[in-house]
Write a structure and sequence with these properties.
The protein is mainly alpha-helical and 242 residues long. 36% of the residues lie in helices and 7% in strands. The protein has a 3-stranded antiparallel sheet. This is Helitron helicase-like domain-containing protein.
Length: 242
């Protein structure tokens, strides 16, 4: 395995002459949304057919509960109302610390719709999606939005996942290390545990769980390698006599 694990996201609408794909399916040609989603997945005509009813039920569930999907629906309605060509969506890379960390996020907290040509005030990890931008944007693995956008079926409520500012509490820490935040490895180790009679969707997702597990491992390793890359001077001073 080489390189880095990352997720990319495209424009709100497809470019002229192209079919809608990925998140564009929530905005463009929504009258045929279920059929479009099935055709995108079924690349092999000999593969087993997907159940239209199941795809429709999943769509309805995400429409009702997922703040990211609701954001795209807002874009759909706004484009129909005003035929705006300069609409932008700002997906928050980090959010305020008010409230409990595991409260379910609301649409207003995960994204904002911006009209007009003005500075939308990009944060360090914010994602700005334009109507048609012609390129893909990278989402940082430590962004709140990374896992909910990459695995909407595993996080149907758009739950916030790993961020590098989760406080480490009730732990005995070597005073010399001065570590106050939860590491990514600790976070994923916590998420994959079965807890009593509580059903964890992630553990019942079969092949999707296997993909998630591999992604989680590669994310952990990429973050570790990035730390080594960005702390060469400190590490060199620490291990010069080893």
């Amino acid at each position: 395995m080489s390189g880095e694990n990352y997720h990319r996201i495209g424009s709100l609408l497809p470019n002229p002459g192209e079919k809608s794909k990925f998140s564009q399916l929530y905005i463009y040609d929504t009258e045929n949304e279920v059929a479009n989603k099935i055709s995108i997945v079924r690349m092999d005509k000999n593969s087993n057919p997907l159940h239209t009813k199941i795809v429709f039920d999943i769509k309805e569930m995400l429409d009702s509960h997922n703040p990211y999907v609701q954001t795209y629906r807002m874009v759909q309605y706004r484009l129909k109302e005003s035929n705006a060509c300069n609409l932008k969506v700002k997906i928050m890379g980090k959010r305020g610390k008010k409230g409990r960390r595991y409260n379910l996020p609301t649409t207003s907290k995960v994204a904002a719709l911006v009209m007009g040509n003005f500075d939308v005030g990009n944060g360090e990890r914010d994602i700005i999606l334009e109507t048609q931008q012609g390129y893909l944007q990278r989402i940082f693995v430590v962004s709140y939005a990374y896992l909910p956008l990459h695995y909407p079926l595993l996080f149907p409520h758009g739950e916030d996942r790993y961020s590098d500012d989760i406080p480490l509490k009730e732990a005995t820490i070597d005073a010399s290390k001065k570590r106050e935040k939860v590491s990514m490895r600790e976070f994923f180790a916590h998420r994959i545990q079965q807890r009593g009679d509580k059903q964890v969707v992630l553990l019942y997702s079969k092949r999707l769980f296997q993909q998630f597990f591999v992604d989680a491992y590669s994310i952990i390793e990429s973050v570790r390698l990035n730390y080594v890359k960005t702390h060469q001077k400190q590490l060199g001073q620490k291990y010069i006599k080893v």
